[in-house]
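Pilot study result, target chain (821 residues):
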Amino acid sequence: MIMITIRCMMKPVRIPSLLAASIGLALYGPQLLAQDALPVLEETQTQTVEQADGLLIDRADIDAKPMANSTLSQLLKTQPGIAINDATGSVRAGDLAPEEISLANARPHQTNYMIGGVTTNNITTFKDSDSAGSLGGHTSGYFFDTDLLESVEVMDRNVDAEFGSFTGGVINAELRKPTDTFEAEYNYRMTDSSWNSDPKLDEDNGDLESPVWGDGRYQDKYQKRFHNLFVGGGVSENHKLGFGLSLQESDIPLIYNGERKDQTQTNTNMFINHLATLGAWELSNEFRYSEFTEERFLNDTFTNETDENSDYENSHSGFGFTVKLSRDFELGHWRNTVAFDQLKDERSADVDYYKTHFDYRTGFSMGSEGSYGNLDQTQDSTKLKSAFDFNDIFTGDVRHSITVGAEATLHSAEGNFHNDFHTFSQFSNADGTVELDNWVVTSAGSYKADANQYALFATDTIEWNKLTVDLGLRAEHMDLFDQTVLAPRVKGSWDFETDRTNRLSLGVSRYYSGSLLGWALTAEKRGMQANYQDCVASIDADNVSLNPNDYVCEGATQYQKINLNQAETPYSDEVALNYDLQLGNIVMNAGYLFRMQRDGLQSVYNSTLKQDELLNNMESDSHIYSIRFSNARNYHALGGQFGGFLNLGYVDSKGSGSVTSVYDNENDLNTGSQLEWVELDGELMKRSEMDAGSYNSDFTAALGLNAAWPQYGLTWNNLVNYEGGRKLTLFQRQESRDIEGVPTAVAVMSSAEMDSLITWDTKLTWTPSMAHDHFTIGLSVTNLLDEQVKISSSGIDGNSKFTDDYYNKGREVWLNVGFKL
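Predicted structure:
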């Protein structure tokens, strides 16, 4: 039987899987063919239900879920309270990189990504998109294929004080582990655009098909191929070794000056892990590696041509290791972790300039040329952690379970511009003179920054009769903000029945942001930049020099660095209420989460001070409701095994939404706004009072229906998903309004509600008995009904020339073949 775990603080309790439980029967069916009922596992004999403080999806559940790309975001996207940025997924269906994930309606960079309990966040290039002179990135440091994962745990409420560095939540992925018995498994998956639905466009953004669309990434043609291998087992009585390898390839022939030019993306993952028993000590070693690469080119923003100097390649790679050592002592269990990760983002480009050209020599024409420049950034992170779990202490009828620990995280980062990089506007005048304006020169060289964090934490779980109280406190010093903060975590639970199948829980907690080292690094980079204004050259317009000495400029400004110690550490407060109940074979969890995000950071350029300025002016209030129903054991009918679940979620959020023309731009920390006031649909309000927008649909519902016929080796897994239309705020213009007698700049906005969507994902798997269960063939279809509706809009409201509408992905067909020893 496949199992799924509902997590309660640090105590996982397993309940039978509802997410395609039948696939396990197909894989291990021969032992069950002679039985009329499922075997009774030890876990089901003492079935308990604990508060759903988090979700644990195990190996079998990962295998079972029908999805397209095998990424964390696609695995988690249908869970209540979890939102992903799939706004442009339809027109970029060939992409391999995962989407950003938002937990508890926090900004995506406030999700703490962990591998084996070790934070692996990319904190230097966590922006979602690249731009001239800056590297794009993803908050997650590793893009691991979910086929290489043993389990995925999500903690989005009542998070234990042992965990920090987030205001949203924690996603902890465990890589596959070797068992005593040797096993080898290979899987191949592929899809092709000719099998799938074309991206849907409307008349306003039909130009997405042509090179006039900025970065030229309209991906109507692609083929994706995924290879996955895992080998593991015992090599001696006390030692086990595991090896995992995944290679993902995507060929994307993009439109290039009226023809097709092949662009390739690859995502490679690899790990080696070692488990050992050394006397009284338990040892775990793990090495991990990941590299994502993509080829790109830029289209001229103003013409139907692609500049020959615009090609570049991005890469994001990481390698690291973790060593865990633990043992039991008379007083309790001692856990120790040492980990290191190096993450590197790099761009290799044709040229080191990007210009917008205004040509007045023969009438008037305009265009863009160049690329985003050659540069790289490297992040080194060392993590040290030690915790002691004391044996239970009894004082009368009261039991205490106490843990104390310490943690240190040492971050350093270095960036490098290989050559001088230039961004500017060029004016070629009719008289042959050349002018350059808004000319920013970043000098070749390196820039560095570092930031360390130190934490102490303590927890005490107190149990008395039907009452359980979890007390936790985390004290943390953050060098980057030069602050020491305290994060209390408290939760109380009351069991109406002694078997814990009827429980009510209430918790209040505070969480603080982790390091945002990228801002410190950006500040150092700004110190290498100079801004030249109104520069006139006496040279010929066809031979433009990029040497400032060849120009006479009206002004030149050296950018000033900013000090992050002036900022407050972003934090969030929560109130979480949960009720768990099991009646017979039905398990129910109802939850309410009130999450208050405060002191969110953004960076803006202050023209008066002539330097960047940090603002702690981002905040939101989110009410998140969820209810889950599932069956504890599978049902038997029609010769098969049947199970299912129903998840419902509702999000009501107000807060600092986007006041720019780019969809959900408030998540880009380097594109901030000083505006406190907005006029939304004619109503004047503070920015914190507007709809936050974000990636969340207000109402979501997911219905899972799964079946297995072990005697035939067949499993059939289905997921019907409903998403309410997202609420967006669209920028129109900036105007001045009289507020309490003072002329004040406000952003004039309009609201828009996108369309609701119902999709049906299905997966059919056959493991023929004549192949002795060594061979599996499967077919997955996402969005079987091929429903495509508008899910996001980006641009200036009321001006269709500068507004693009995006739809969800249409039908996708995936073929899967697997071999197992």
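One observation from the pilot: Confidence is low (pLDDT under 50) at residues 1-51. A full batch analysis is planned for the follow-on phase.
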